[in-house]
Amino acid sequence: MNILNRKRKVVWNTRLVVGLFVGALMLVLFFRVVPPHTLRGFALTLARPVWQARLSASVAAGGVFGVFASKVALERENALLYEELQKTQLILMRARVALRENRNLKSLLGRAGEYEYTLAWVLARPADTPYDTLIIDAGSVEGVQTGDRVFSEALVALGTVAEVFGRTSRIALFSSPGTETGVVFPESGLVATARGEGGGNFVVRVLEDEMIVEGTPVVLPGVSPTTIGVVHSVERVRGDVFMTVRFRTPVNLSTVLRVLVEKDTVS
Questions:
Q1: pTM of the model
Q2: In contact, 228 and 250? CB cutoff 8 Å
């Protein structure tokens, strides 16, 4: 009986080793043959239900536990929000003036078009993804294409679609480290190239200009300029004709829930 058990054990061990070897060989061949884009799409497909479940749970948890926030914390948050509201209202006043002038100009030029957008939920954000990227729950099925621009719900420019899969897409943010983006300071008309520094932050070197101060909006160039950020610091060095301007997106990238994907222009 012992001899029979030993033989069975040897046969089982042999099958296990052979099975592991064949499995490892198939995995190696799979990763060598299947294109990286397909692998990322497969991984995103598997992760999509998990991200959606976590998104639903976080929204529900926020609604339950938000009731128990302390009075002191709420008062502090309200004070900060009021301060931000004052800054935002100033920016909006400037933006409305610029928008009115822009519409008048486009009407004169016969280019008063409108844009169509696809609303998408953010499945993963910079806290979960590397290199300032977002993963959204809209893909080729919803008509999303590589290169489409992506905005916040307040129409702040965030980035472009880098990869498209069936029902998900990867968004590369303009603020990704090293990414260069053409920008305009509308109040002075100064055009420059900003470099992303990560986390929604940008830096740009421009000629000395007194009109560029903290709170100055920064927009993307084009017939319909859209806000990309707001100046938060200006560094001037005596004797230098250039100054260093740092600005950041007004959108909290770590908590953004929904975005708009620009579809096309209706002339």
A1: 0.64
A2: no
For 30, phi and psi rounded to 5 degrees? -65, -50
Give the burial class of 232: count Cβ atoms within 10 A of its Cβ; 0-12 exposed, 13-18 middle, 19 or more buried: middle
**Residue 264 to residues 110, 143, 157, Cα–Cα distance (Å):** 17, 10, 15
Smallest Cα–Cα separation from 172: which of 148, 201, 143?
148
- CB of 178 within 8 A of CB of 153? no
User: Which has the higher per-residue pLDDT, 232 or 9?
Assistant: 232
Nearest-angstrom CA–CA distance, 261 and 258? 10
Secondary structure letter of residue 140 according to DSSP? G
**Partner residues linked to 185 by β-bridges:** 190
pLDDT for 125: 86
Pull the structure tokens for residue 243: 């100054």
